[in-house]
Amino acid sequence: MSSDTFALLNQFRNADLVKAGIAEIHKITTRPWAIMEICGGQTHAILRSGLDELLPEKIELVHGPGCPVCVTPLKLIDQALAIASQPNVIFTTFGDMMRVPGSNRDLFSIKAAGGQVRIVYSPLDAIRIAQENPDKQVVFFAIGFETTVPVNAMSVIQAKALGLKNYSILVSQVCVPPAMHAILSAPHNRVQGFLAAGHVCSVMGYWQYLPIAEQYKIPIVVTGFEPLDLVEGIRITVKQLEAGSHQVENAYSRVVSKEGNKPAQEMINRVFEPCDRGWRGIGDIPMSGLGLRKEFSDFNAENRFNVSDITTKESEICIAGQILQGIKKPPECPAFGTLCTQDHPLGATMVSSEGACAAYLRYGRARTGTPEKAS
Ligand code: SF4
Fold first, then answer.
1. Does the beta carbon of 340 sit less than 6 angstroms from any atom of ligand 1?
2. CB distance 360 to ligand 1 below 6 Å
3. Angle at the Cα of 156 from the Cα atoms of 154 and 157, rounded to 5 degrees
4. Whose CA is nearest to atom 3 of ligand 1?
5. Does 100 contact ligand 1 (Cβ within 6 A)?
């Protein structure tokens, strides 16, 4: 990281400016409000910097489903485990997926038993591995929100251009707007304002959120990841809530534009199309996923390895689904910090670097209880 980048980031970690923003939020808050940060990266940033403990008692931050590892359906995890167990396969994945529990095991246990499971930083690494190992089938576990989809698309385009017959992707890509609809239309919804994830918006823009804000009369503020970004996002949301306003505002304009990254969106649309998708702990959300288009179906690992008929068994204790919808907080889970820890996770939200349970345990939050819905 260059010294210029450090200097820029330090501006957004300035303690005096953060304190001034927090003081302003205290000044303008007169009623209880429940605000959801969608992104798990923002959840960790909030807890790491202690912002949740500096806000007025009346402001409750609830944690959303924006952790791709956490929402990858159990069936997909079990399919990944079945594929990775096969002798002629090199299974490639981001490191976060290694310890996510399937019905009976995880990718680490397959690697420990001699399976070829490799951690990569990009699907383009998996393409290289496929070129170097023409006698093996190389599979990339393509999970993620809109942020990671362009590079997954690029890998498929590249594989096709190279004529690779031994590369495929196991797809579990999800989109934010359908999840917001699902949360806001649920009968138990408590969310009154959203902090939208800045990195997703850097790709997709924020034009998709305008009809959501209008339909549900809810403020949506595009927010970054540094303490000052988060304080500013919360301040703008509270200001709107107190004024009865429901606009989409951009508090991350140094990165995000309304239109987003058009070439990246075109890349996504060339390779993928909307499809129904299951979210772990939440259930099916119509048209919330991005699946391979027909012309790229040769690269679909689910078809190539015939792993559709897998039955799953979810933990009976884990309440991650309720946590991902903002209904409960991690300490309300009876297994939190006892039966379920980062060494022995029972659910994906305890494994992922963006998972809410992992954040609460790592940063020592044990506050329990869910306040009544703010009126
Ligand atoms: S603490 Fe563990 S068991 Fe409980 S909800 Fe979180 S991941 Fe699931």
1. yes
2. no
3. 65
4. 318
5. no
The closest residue, in CA terms, to atom 1 on ligand 1 is 336
- The secondary structure of 327-354, three-state, reads CCCHHHCCCECCCECCCCCCCHHHCCCC
CA-nearest residue, atom 6 of ligand 1 = 357
Query: Residue 63: in which H helix or E strand, if any?
Result: strand 59-66
Q: Which residues sit opposite 90 in a β-bridge? A: 116, 138
| pLDDT for res 371 | 41
Separation of alpha carbons 72 and 67, rounded Å = 9
Chain segment 114-136, per-residue pLDDT in tens: 999 999 999 999 999 999 999 99
Helix (H, G, I), strand (E, B) or coil at 173: strand
CB count, 10 Å around CB of 271? 23
Tell me the domain boundaries of the chain.
14-366
Mean pLDDT of the chain: 92
Ligand 1 in reach of 320 Cβ (< 6 A): yes
Find where tokens 């196991």 sit: 170
Say if residues 15 and 44 touch (Cβ distance below 8 Å): no
pTM: 0.89
Ligand 1 proximity of 350 Cβ (cutoff 6 Å): yes
Atom of ligand 1 nearest to the CA of 334: 4
Query: Furthest-apart CA pair in the chain: how many Å?
Result: 66
Q: Which CATH class is domain 14-366?
A: alpha beta
Contacts (Cβ under 8 Å, ≥6 apart) of 300: 168, 169, 171, 292
C-beta of 101 in contact with ligand 1 (< 6 A): no
Q: Taking a C-beta distance cutoff of 8 angstroms, is the pair 92, 138 a contact?
A: yes
Question: What whole-number distance in Å separates Cα of residue 139 and Cα of residue 309?
Answer: 19
Strand partners, 278: 284
> Which residues does 36 contact at the CB level (< 8 Å), separation at least 6?
61, 62, 63, 64, 183, 191, 193, 194, 195, 326
Is 321 touching ligand 1 by the criterion CB < 6 Å? no
> Helices 149-162 and 262-271 sit at what angle, rounded to 10 degrees?
60
